Amino acid sequence: MWRWIKKWWTLIRSPAKYFSLGFLTLGGFVAGIIFWGAFNTGMEFTNSETFCVSCHEDNVYQEIQGTIHFTNRTGVRAICSDCHVPHDWTDKMARKMQASKEVWAWITGAISTPEKFEARRLHMAQREWTRMEKNDSLECRNCHEFSYMDFTQQSSRASNQHSTNLASGDKTCIDCHKGIAHRLPDMKGVEGF
Q1: Cα–Cα dist 120/32, whole Å
Q2: In-domain check, residue 41
Q3: More exposed terminus of the chain, fewer Cβ within 10 Å: N or C?
Q4: 144 belongs to an annotated ligand binding site
Q5: Can you give the pLDDT at residue 86?
Q6: Does residue 38 surpass a pLDDT of 90?
Q7: Cβ atoms within 10 A of the Cβ of 55, count?
Q8: 80 marked ligand binding residue
Q9: Is 140 annotated as a binding residue?
Q10: According to the annotation, is 56 in a ligand binding site?
Q11: Is 83 flagged in the annotation as binding?
Q12: Span of the secretion signal (predicted)?
């Protein structure tokens, strides 16, 4: 046993060429921690309202300011990432990869003017609605838990829809709540409008 420990200790202390294996291992470990910390800091910054508003201040950010998700009696406010970025790490990374196409569209000028943005608005909205339909409106459900809904406090129409279609799984939040935070695009040709 001691001979085995001594052998490994000698290997760790002996130089690879200029540095010992132990030094290189420790250096790699520290570099990994620094990389991981920088990566997570960058990911969290891209989830901030400051980051989102840097490109969207003149369009969708202005729209959300008049909604209940921005200002309400309770003071609980949703920021962009609450609705557009999944909270689970794996899903978040997948969404960040998808969002890189959106950043590229901004950099290349595909949506850099209000006119260009409006021309692509329906396409971008449909892509977001499809994503939310596929994940059963997960971002909505992070705040709006079905089991906590008080149907007696809802309008009769909302109570009926929530207690039937939402409860059965036939519909998800985004099926009925398109345009809840942003102005709807031109909905010609979109089913239900």
Answers
A1: 40
A2: yes
A3: N
A4: yes
A5: 87
A6: yes
A7: 18
A8: yes
A9: yes
A10: no
A11: yes
A12: none
- Side chain identity at 131, as an amino acid letter? R
Going by C-alpha positions, the residue among 94, 96, 71 that lies closest to residue 81 is 96
- What is the extent of the structural domain holding 48? 26-175
Integer Cα distance of 63 and 179 in angstroms: 10
Count structural domains, the chain. 1
Q: What is the pLDDT of residue 101?
A: 85
Query: Is 123 assigned to a binding site?
Result: no
Residue 118 lies in a domain: yes
Nearest C-alpha neighbor of 133 from the set 177, 103, 172: 172
Copy the structure tokens of residue 27: 């250096």
Is 181 within a domain?
no
What's the N-to-C CA distance of the chain in angstroms? 76
191 is in an annotated binding site: no
Share of the chain above pLDDT 90, in %: 22
DSSP 22-46: HHHHHHHHHHHHHHHHHHHHHHHHH
Answer yes or no: is 55 a known binding residue.
Answer: yes
Say whether 177 counts as a known binding-site residue. Answer: yes
**Quick check: is 82 in a domain?**
yes
167 vs 17: which has the higher pLDDT: 167
pLDDT for position 28: 92
> Which amino acid, 147?
S
